[in-house]
Amino acid sequence: MRSPQLHKLLNRITPTQFIVLGYLAAVIVSTVILRLPISWREGVRLSWMDALFTATSAVSVTGLTIVNTAESFSGFGKVALLCMFQLGGIGIMTLGIFLWLILGRNISLSYRKLIMVDQNQSTLSGLVQLLKIVFVLALIIEGAGALLLTVYFKLSGYYDDWLTAFVHSMFHAVSSFTNAGFDIFGSSMIRYNADYFIQLVTILLLILGAIGFPVLIELREYLSGRHRHFRFSLYTKMTAIMFFLLIVVGTVFIWLLEKDLHYSGMTWHEQFFYSLFNSVTTRSGGLATMDMNSYSMPTLLLLSVLMFIGASPSSAGGGIRTTTFAVVLLALVNYAIGRSEVRSFHRTIKQEDVSKSFIVFTAAALLVITGTILLTYTEQSSIPLVAIFFEICSAFGTSGLSLGITGDLTSGGKWVLVIVMFIGRIGMLSLLFIFRQNRRKPRIHYPKEDIIIG
Hints:
Oligomer: single chain
Distance between the termini: 58 Å
Order of helices and strands: HHHHHHHHHHHHHHHEEHHHH
Largest sheet: 2 strands, antiparallel
Strand content: under 5%
Number of strands: 2
């Protein structure tokens, strides 16, 4: 039985604080696991800092690494990393509740509140069924991706035996869908920069992992045909349109910026796939088919902005999220044309959601600026500012793309990235909500007064 003191302490912890503590505990346990000698290959030794950095990158599904995954970790270590990807990508509550159901336990109201927070839901109804669908969808998508890649790797001659092809395919499929960005190929996907089939499968896995589980669930309902008059929600419409619009805009602008520079002399399909893949992987993927240092500074800044925006809510990705960016843009447009409310698809967006979007955008911008300043301070060397800004945006957007400075950072610089990666995974709202307590609404309201803005 719980002691009265423990029961009182648990009642004081809000669901958001509990979720954040859960991810923090996952990072700590993962650090200990990666520090065990059984996780390393022969002749390799990871320091506590290296283990903490790798564990945070894996649980936050970022992909920034200071050691080579293929050369540093044993079979046990790679399986442990896969489990961390799943935990961070699908969500700590999804896996926890699924195991709870397997054990035949009932899901109490307190656990349902935790699910609601973890999955960004506004109602308690249907949450357990939602998690079941999320878990099954993830397994089906990862399994299909692994099967396709296994057959292709073997028949194309990349690997001589089926087991090796399956191991590499499974790791890559899970890493891609969860947007973890880790690889066991040794050099990300540079080896496959001319293999468009592998790139297309990877792009599809990255998109399915980053577009958000609510969108996938609504798409599943629509394709099932069970509802004759099915209508997509405003959330799904806004998310899907902004998500794919960013991919298209990113692809076009990357090509425009590089067509006379890095792409000079390339065929049209090489230019297209480099642009498309890098536009998609900035959503939070972190896998790369080329050395990012080959791009010009304007392109690197564009990629940084795309990583800052990140993926969609309730997905495996980080950043401010696509809906936040969409609402901020809509608010600016509606305010400019004189509307007092934000509209989209013949619907009015709640003022509370508009306020949240600007709060998330502002807080995230302050975090990235602060992280850039701190990393510049800790790395008082010849590292260019654009490389530091790129690294911070990659950490916040849990993308994992890098200009190759991660392994050369000081301990202070690694701590900065660890904190930014962790915040990027739990989200800006969760970070702000951890300071809230379970308090009643105030009875006293003060008079309002105008101030000068702008």
